[in-house]
């Protein structure tokens, strides 16, 4: 059988498909990392809120035990405000992380489309090769049949001459 003329193209498409699959896999891993980071930030925020409530209650109990003064209440208010500011910063980090996750999801979708396209192109060239192989096989059979017919005809004519 003659060599397939588009074998190099087929190998290139196979490599492109493998690279697209690898890129898709890496994008999925990146998305999972970003989602895990978002989850960690959300858990941190919840933990901070619970800690703030506990710390404020403990501070309030301490101030009440010593005697509630204006200065003590102001310090408690500042302390609570500082904790709320930290929580607001974490909440802002969560919003930024949500955007990063959205970007990662879009990247995964784009990589999925590229992978599907690469697979489709490889499938097309494989189908072409199958068709070409069938055609070559058919042509070879036709030539063999023609040769057999010529041989048979030559033998018949040789017998007729005797």
TrEMBL record:
<feature type="region of interest" description="Disordered">
    <location>
        <begin position="130"/>
        <end position="162"/>
    </location>
</feature>
<keyword id="KW-0175">Coiled coil</keyword>
<feature type="coiled-coil region">
    <location>
        <begin position="6"/>
        <end position="62"/>
    </location>
</feature>
<dbReference type="InterPro" id="IPR031869">
    <property type="entry name" value="YscO-like"/>
</dbReference>
<keyword id="KW-0966">Cell projection</keyword>
<dbReference type="Pfam" id="PF16789">
    <property type="entry name" value="YscO-like"/>
</dbReference>
<dbReference type="InterPro" id="IPR053716">
    <property type="entry name" value="Flag_assembly_chemotaxis_eff"/>
</dbReference>
<keyword id="KW-0282">Flagellum</keyword>
<keyword id="KW-0969">Cilium</keyword>
<feature type="compositionally biased region" description="Basic and acidic residues">
    <location>
        <begin position="130"/>
        <end position="146"/>
    </location>
</feature>
<protein>
    <submittedName>
        <fullName>Flagellar assembly protein FliH</fullName>
    </submittedName>
</protein>
């Amino acid at each position: 059988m003659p060599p397939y003329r588009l074998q190099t193209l087929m190998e290139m498409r196979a490599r492109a498909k493998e690279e697209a699959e690898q890129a898709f896999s890496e994008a999925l891993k990146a998305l999972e990392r970003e989602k895990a980071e978002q989850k960690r930030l959300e858990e941190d925020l919840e933990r901070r809120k619970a800690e703030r409530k506990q710390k404020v209650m403990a501070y309030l109990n301490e101030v009440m035990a010593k005697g509630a003064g204006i200065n003590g209440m102001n310090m408690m208010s500042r302390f609570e405000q500082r904790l709320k500011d930290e929580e607001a910063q974490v909440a802002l980090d969560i919003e930024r992380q949500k955007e990063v996750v959205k970007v990662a999801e879009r990247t995964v979708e784009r990589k999925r489309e590229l992978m599907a396209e690469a697979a489709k192109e490889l499938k097309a060239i494989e189908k072409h090769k199958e068709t070409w192989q069938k055609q070559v096989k058919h042509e070879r059979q036709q030539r063999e049949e023609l040769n057999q017919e010529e041989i048979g005809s030559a033998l018949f004519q040789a017998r007729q001459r005797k």
